[in-house]
Amino acid sequence: MSRLCYGQLCDAVRMAATARLAPRERIMDMAPPDEHDRTLVENVHPADWTNPAPADRYNLVAVGGGTAGIVAALVAAGLGAKTALVEQRGLGGDCLNFGCVPSKALLRAARAVYQASLGERFGFRLTEPPQVEFPAVMDRMRRLRATISRHDAAARFRSVVRRFSSAAR
Ligand SMILES: Cc1cc2nc3c(=O)[nH]c(=O)nc-3n(C[C@H](O)[C@H](O)[C@H](O)COP(=O)(O)OP(=O)(O)OC[C@H]3O[C@@H](n4cnc5c(N)ncnc54)[C@H](O)[C@@H]3O)c2cc1C
User: Fold this and answer.
1) What count of other Cβ atoms lies within 10 Å of the Cβ of residue 117?
2) Strand order in 83-87's β-sheet?
3) Sign of CA dihedral 138, 32, 40, 77
4) 86 within ligand 1 shell (Cβ under 6 A)
5) What pLDDT is attached to residue 99?
6) What pLDDT, on a 0 to 100 scale, did the predictor assign at position 52?
7) CA gyration radius, the chain
8) Is 10 left (phi over 0), alpha (psi -120 to 50) or beta?
9) What is the pTM of this model?
10) Rounded to an integer, what distance in angstroms lies between the CA atom of residue 158 and that of residue 91?
């Protein structure tokens, strides 16, 4: 890494560490959050988070705490590198918050409904066709996402995570 690039990354961490926090209610665009979403936000963007004092130099700064940034930061820190992870919104990125996890929860519900229609193949018959309650489907999705979010929780990365809610520039 060139010296210029290295300095820019350190500047980015410093700027992020001194910038103002964005309103928490805008972090996940959730209105109003239910108990599952509150758990999710407390894991991926905790209200009581305080940034460690920025170091002068880092071996690695990961900009973005999605799958890529988390893995890169954890592996680097595990190898002994001085590492910072900068996330502007919520740890877990697209995969946890909007992509893989929510979509698979919805797909699983759709598969369950479809399989219920195959009863005769398996030796049972429903007296009525299954009624989908979409709010319940979404509630299940939010519950699963909140449970899984502990794997991406800021508390797990306290030694490497520097900052939330300020975009690194
Ligand atoms: C509907 C859907 C379903 C998917 N299903 C699957 C699946 O089943 N399996 C699979 O492997 N993949 C799946 N994906 C793809 C997966 O979500 C992405 O491959 C993965 O999230 C990419 O990770 P990433 O870390 O590169 O980026 P992201 O997850 O996008 O994370 C980037 C992070 O960087 C932060 N950020 C951005 N700019 C800045 C900045 N300037 N300063 C600080 N932080 C910043 C963002 O807030 C974000 O948290 C799915 C995606 C979608 C949309």
Assistant:
1) 11
2) 60-63, 83-87, 161-164
3) positive
4) yes
5) 95
6) 80
7) 20
8) alpha
9) 0.84
10) 12
Q: So what's the pLDDT on residue 14?
A: 42
In this prediction, residue 30 carries a pLDDT of 63
- CB 140 within 8 Å of CB 105: yes
Nearest CA to ligand 1 atom 45: 64
The two tokens of residue 165 are 């809610």
Does the Cβ of 99 fall within 6 Å of ligand 1? yes
Asked whether 66 lines ligand 1 (CB < 6 A), one says: yes
Reading phi first (left if > 0) and then psi (alpha if -120 to 50, else beta), residue 14 is in alpha
Is the CB of residue 95 below 6 angstroms from any atom belonging to ligand 1?
A: yes
134-148 helix and 35-44 helix, angle to the nearest 10 degrees:
30
Give the domains, in start order, of the chain with CATH numbers: 6-165 (3.50.50.60)
pLDDT at residue number 166? 63
DSSP-derived letter for residue 59 is S
CB atoms within 10 A of CB 116: 12
Length, in residues, of the chain: 169
pLDDT for the residue numbered 68:
97
d(CA 162, CA 97): 20
The stretches in the chain having pLDDT less than 70 are 1-31, 159, 161-169
